[in-house]
Design brief:
Blueprint (H helix, E strand, L loop, with lengths): L1 H11 L7 E6 L3 E7 L5 H5 L4 H16 L3 E7 L1
Parallel strand pairs: 2-3
Antiparallel strand pairs: 1-2
């Protein structure tokens, strides 16, 4: 799932080398914290949060296949 997030976000941002994804693994839930260049935060979130919402939907679909739940947080 981490690779999925990284692949999608790298295609969106101008500074892909600044992407950092931290994985906090729980029993049934995994939380991904995404950090990127301050100039790219708006591109990742998108208008009214539509882009990050779409990424979360894809992430949840992948997590459901594994019988888990996943959350994505964009950290400034």
């Amino acid at each position: 799932m981490r690779e999925l997030i990284e692949y999608i976000v790298r295609a969106l941002v101008d500074y892909p080398q600044d992407i950092q994804i931290t994985e906090v693994d729980g029993e049934k839930t995994v939380i991904f914290e995404l950090r990127c260049n301050k100039k790219d935060v708006g591109k990742v979130i998108g208008k009214s949060g539509k882009t990050v919402g779409a990424i979360r939907t894809l992430l949840n679909t992948a997590a459901t296949k594994e019988g888990r739940k996943a959350m994505l947080e964009v950290v400034d």
